[in-house]
Amino acid sequence: MSFVFFDTETTGLHKGFDQIVHFAAIRTDNDLNEIDRFEARCRLMAHIVPHPAAVTTNGLPISRLTDAGLPTHYEMMRQVRAKLLDWTPSIVVGFNSIRFDEEMIRHALFQTLHDPYLTSRNNNCRGDALGLVMAAVADTPGCLIVPLGSEGRPTFRLEALAAANGLDHAMAHDAMADVGATLALCRMVKDGAPDVWQRFVRFSNKAAVAQFVASEDGFLLTEFYGNEPYPSPVVLVGANPEQAANGRLCLRLDIDIEGLVALSDEALKEALAEKAGPVRQLRTNAGPVLTPLYDVPDALLNGRTVDDFEAVARRVKDDAALCARIVAAWAAGRTPYERSPHPERRTHDGFPGPADELRRDDFHEAGWAEAVRIVEHFDDDRLRAFGLRLIYLGNRAILPAALAAEAERALTDRLIGDESGGLTLTAALAETDRLLPSVGEGRDRELLDGYRIWLVDRIERVMTFRAKRFATPTPA
Fold this sequence. Notes:
With 476 residues, the protein is α+β, with helices and mostly antiparallel strands. The chain has 19 helices and ten strands. The chain has a five-stranded mixed sheet with strand order 3-2-1-4-5, sandwiched between helices. The model has no long low-confidence stretch (mean pLDDT 93).
């Protein structure tokens, strides 16, 4: 199977409310030899407010982000989708991509009326190079050089890893440059830690993950927080009720199992609700870092033996009532989900119905007038909101007055509303003013100065438009 290495540059870190402005990808064969590459850029959408830190990190002046000569976000995502479909099936890999880049892509696809789960459907698999690198360093320390950060602790930032390992990465935070660095690191792991690489490839497939965790008498699950690995010997206890299709719940094997069993139902619920509690989660479709116990280095067993852990695992697995009790207690301690008023936060709130999926597909082939009719017939309010936004941004003149006013109200609320959900113009201005004193003369100063001028002008224009368009008539 081929690999697709990819990266995105975005206006910020707020998934659902920020946007991708640069997408890049390299396709390789099974031996990581490049066979194709692709990149696309777009201009800023009218309702998106870049975070000033993203402006300086990506080195993108506001004049470039607002360049009318660039494709629209909708046009870019149509190109990205077409290319990914052309490269399907593949193992899709990014750096810290499962938590961020792929989520940005999912939100972008959904908001442009496409299936958001493109990278995990159609026989595609997923893996995250950040987890791969951390696992490789833990398993085979000499395969990569891990530099120290400013606080004297190991840092797994992509640009730092690339520099420490002699990789060409002169344009850090350029999407294509980051893709090249990610690919180069993966080649180093493939050569220097082949067993880790093979597990990475194996567990990029969700069916392989599901089979492995169900059949093993314990295994090592490595999670990553703050760029540090946290390995735990665990055993599967059941499906995650919140993510029944792909979610799994595992119980740590290095705890006092009998003490846990002896707890009352209420005490068990409280114990499992702790942040670093004994129940760990994994998703079969998210490329989890898994290691068979017999492959775990002795240093990670903390003085225990594989036989010890396997015996505890069998004790847990053989007690179906205990497994069910643990799952129920864990679920009972969860905070109930509250439906967000913002459609941007509801990408994963269930699938559109079959009729809406057909309407969604028809939208892209229709002219603007027909697209208006399609949007009005959506049953899913998320699709209606996003479809209306696409039409307004693409050809607002075609909209009936009432629908145009609805779209304008929603977009201006996103820019200056108190309950906007995302970064507002005034909040961005305040953050820009906070950052300016900390930057000296040079590129970052020029970027922030230019961005501040744009923000002040935009606030004035939006406030003026809003006052004229939505002014409350004076009673007679």
